[in-house]
Amino acid sequence: LGMGRDFPLTHPQSLPVSPDTAYHHASKIEWKTRSDIFGEFYCRARKSDKNQIYTYKMLNEAAFLPESLTITVSIGEDVNISFTRRKVFAEDAVIYKNGSFIHSVPKNEIPDILVYPVQGVKSSDAGLYTARSIAGAKSTSAITRLIVRKCKPGLWGPSCEHSCPVCSNGGVCHDETGECICPPGFKGHTCETVCGEGKFGRMCKEWCRDGYCRSMVFCQRDPYGCSCGTGWKGFNCSEACSPGFYGADCRLTCECGDKGHCDRFRGCVCVGRHGSRCEKQVCIILSVVRPCQHHFTRLRNNSDSMILFYYQVECVQSSDPGTVKTYQLPSNSTGLKLPDLKPRHKYECRVRIMTVSMGQHSQPVSAWTLSNELPPAPSSIRSCNITDTSAIITWSLVEGHSISKVMLRFQDNTLMQFHQVIGCAYATSETYSTSPSPPPGLAGLGSEGNMLFYAILGSAGMTCITILVAFCIVLQLKRATFQRRMVQAFQNIVREEPVVQFSSGSLNMPNKKHKNPEKSVAYPTLEWSDIKFQDVIGEGNFGQVLKARIKKDGLRMDAAIKRMKEYASKDDHRDFAGELEVLCKLGHHPNIINLLGACEHRGYLYLAIEFAPHGNLLDFLRKSRVLETDPAFAIANSTASTLTSQQLLHFAADVARGMDYLAQKQFIHRDLAARNILVGENFVAKIADFGLSRGQEVYVKKTMGRLPVRWMAIESLNYSVYTTNMYFVLTCVSGGTPYCGMTCAELYEKLPQSYRLEKPLNCDDEVYDLMRQCWREKPYERPSFQQILVSLNRMLEERKTYVNTTLYEKFTYAGIDCSAEEAG
């Protein structure tokens, strides 16, 4: 035999083989490294390409498992290629055919069973189908092979002109020769003969090593493919058939009726009968012997011939081979009850027929007796694939303890859980479930009406599919065009004299305070080829923010890419490089937008930061004003916001926590406002500074900087001094414009005269008191961020309604002054 490997190699590779003494005329291969294990392998007679037999190996790292290693269909049939999800990952799922991409599923829409349907199968649909995550290596793929017979079902021959024989017990008709390829465990011209448990091969002369063929996969020449041995099912072929099923992969159903019982290895077993439904009577020819003692049974068949026999049963305790017990049973017996067995022990029995000569023993059957002790605790408990919302727990059980079920108990040891279920009361537990139900009947429609209905339904379905495909094509073309334009635009921009000097992973920045003109800043680097631009999400006078897909440490993820425009000044470029320096020094924190990496391309700096899917907090809060966006919903639910008091306080606590971290790092933000706070995954607030998209009228000039007057402390207005104390973080959660209706000049005049905002009608006194503390004139009288965080955490623990979102009479939202927030 010759053996080799096809997939994932571009050309077949022959592998060294050695004899396998466990079976007749068998060979085996041994893998040296884990990378050699994965793929499609074949064996064949040496110097012959005909009748190659294929098998497939996958690694434990695979995120999916195929429903079966091979699927056999005929021309024109419909088939679903299915993969079962075994690991949770935050990436899109992709399906390939023969190494070429054919289908993808977004990461938030991946079902437990990933299905790729193929309608009206053609010969070109045959091949190797693989599934994995979009960022996964090829060796983490799940593999299944679609085998397509060249003829329609029931036909064979060069022109498919011959009718196939009726292949019994799951046999497959060969489309070229017309012979039945029998599943493992069956033989004969039409696979009608049963080999029995543990046997396989063309003449049923091969035995499985353990006598049961458990956990063994049998692969045969096309078009049969691969399957478990008879009596077994499951991906690892380790699950016994359910009652009423038998054969390879347990695909066959017993129809014995009351004439016999179903054996998962043989099918219907009937006394005096045979056939798949016990429909045929057995004719027994008996030899003539002398009568024997009274304990033998005499069987007659309408003649004077007779045969005398009885059953001999031998049972032994597996752990003590010396305890063999022998029982003799009359010929009309069908079972034996074993007395005086020990609990939690394994016993094996075998049976043979005794006549004037001894018959052969059957294959042994084994069973455990029930345990009289509590089972021990599971061992080897491990957790893996831990994500924000799920984890996989595995354990091992000890045999022989009659374990009927395993109870898994867990509890949440965190302080709080955060859910957002629109239209439902906060902190309620809801369970959603779906169940399949049959489609309603079409009353009053005859066969012609049904045909017309199906024709209309099919036409409408094809129209919808065509529109959907066209939409997807247009969308893909637009994305490709946008990506191409982005790359071309960036390729054409070359800065002759960069303001900052770049070298691999570091940049040199001018330092005005010291004689040493430059200082080096190290940053995590990204390759230009690993950035795929998708869309513009923010744009200002001198800069741009784009959504992109980046590759970092082998993983694909979403990111926001910041860059300066070509006509930005040197000071703008220097400030932008300074932002990279700040992010590098800050490190990682859950309540700030963290740096993912940076890339220098043609003299320009591209900054990759975390992507916040819910946008900035200001727009997020204003979208929650349901009385403006959906009045009917607001009135029906008597609420003015889709957010609860707890959620609003969570936003404030997140901001305070992030600002406390900045204060500890000795950094001053200078522009803390809701527009500079982003809402990330799980609705966590993160501090950012998107100064590139600010409106000009928000700021007044003071020296050479632009100042956000409505969000600044009083001393900052007078002396350009910035403090780390909390000033306006609580009003950020209101979604309104601070001091709506007043100009910046009026604020500049009135704030030093102790003018402050009035208390909002829906705000609790305790919250407003905390606001007033933040607005004190003297910086040292204001609470620190750490003190504010303690106060907010205490409010969250009390679960009191501090911000009332209930719709009351004459309710009004905080005002929005667009002229004060945007240019013009």
UniProtKB/TrEMBL annotation:
GO terms for cellular component: plasma membrane; receptor complex. It is found in: Cell membrane. Residues 156-192 form the EGF-like domain. Disulfide bonds join 182-191. Its EC number is 2.7.10.1. One of its GO terms (biological process) is cell surface receptor protein tyrosine kinase signaling pathway. The chain crosses the membrane at residues 451-475. SUPFAM superfamilies: Fibronectin type III (SSF49265), Protein kinase-like (PK-like) (SSF56112). It is an enzyme of class 2 (transferase). SMART domains: EGF, TyrKc. It is a single-pass type I membrane protein. Its main location: membrane. It catalyses: L-tyrosyl-[protein] + ATP = O-phospho-L-tyrosyl-[protein] + ADP + H(+). It comes from the Eukaryota. GO terms for molecular function: ATP binding; transmembrane receptor protein tyrosine kinase activity. ATP binds at residue 562. Residues 531-796 form the Protein kinase domain. The keyword Cytoplasm does not apply. Keywords: ATP-binding, Cell membrane, Disulfide bond, EGF-like domain, Glycoprotein, Immunoglobulin domain, Kinase, Membrane, Nucleotide-binding, Phosphoprotein, Receptor, Repeat, Signal, Transferase, Transmembrane, Transmembrane helix, Tyrosine-protein kinase. PANTHER family: ANGIOPOIETIN-1 RECEPTOR (PTHR24416:SF125), TYROSINE-PROTEIN KINASE RECEPTOR (PTHR24416). Interacts with svep1. This is receptor protein-tyrosine kinase.
